[in-house]
Amino acid sequence: APVLLLLLALRFCCPGIHSQSLEIKVTSPRDITQLQVGQKLELECRIDKNRGVFWIHQDKSGTLHFILSVSSLSRVTFKGNQKPYRFEASKKGTFYYLVVKSFTPQDEGKYFCIMIDNQMLYFSPGQLAFLP
C-alpha cells in the first residue's frame, strides 16, 4: 500500500503522468445528476489490456481512499482484506465494474480506476458522483 500511495501522490503532483488507456463511465443510474441516497451506483472501467485495476475514491475534502482491486483473473481484494458491505466489484473481459450498493453522503466525490502497465501508472478520468 505505501507504494500505491506514493504513485497516487505522484499522479496529483506531477502533470507528466496522464491517463492514456482507461475509460470510465456510469452504467447505473442513467442520469448521474439525479443520484439519490440509497440508490445503486455502478461504474464501468474499460481498459485496453488484461492487467487488472484499482478503484480509488477521492472524497469532497480531496483525500484519496483505496476501495479495492480486481485482478486480471477476476480476484477482488478489499482494503485490509475485509469485504465491506457497501461495495461489490466484478470483471467481464476488459471491463471492470465497481458497485456502490447503497449510495450515502460519505460516498460523494470522484471515482478513479487505475491500471499499472510496464511500471507506468494510468488513471481514468475521474467520475464525479454527488447527491443533488
From TrEMBL:
Give the SMART domains listed for this entry. IG
Superkingdom: Eukaryota
Q: Does the keyword Disulfide bond apply?
A: yes
Record domain Immunoglobulin: where: 30-131
InterPro entries associated with the record: CD8_asu, Ig-like_dom_sf, Ig-like_fold, Ig_sub, Ig_V-set
Gene3D superfamilies named in the record: Immunoglobulins (2.60.40.10)
Q: Which UniProt keywords apply?
A: Adaptive immunity, Cell membrane, Disulfide bond, Glycoprotein, Immunity, Immunoglobulin domain, Lipoprotein, Membrane, Palmitate, Signal, Transmembrane, Transmembrane helix
One Pfam family for this entry, by name?
V-set
The subcellular location is: Cell membrane
The membrane topology of this protein is: Single-pass type I membrane protein
GO CC annotations, alphabetized: external side of plasma membrane
Q: Which GO terms describe its biological process?
A: cell surface receptor signaling pathway; cytotoxic T cell differentiation; T cell mediated immunity
Q: Secretion signal: which residues?
A: 1-19
Name it.
Answer: CD8A protein
The organism is Certhia brachydactyla (short-toed tree-creeper)
Q: Which gene encodes it?
A: Cd8a_0
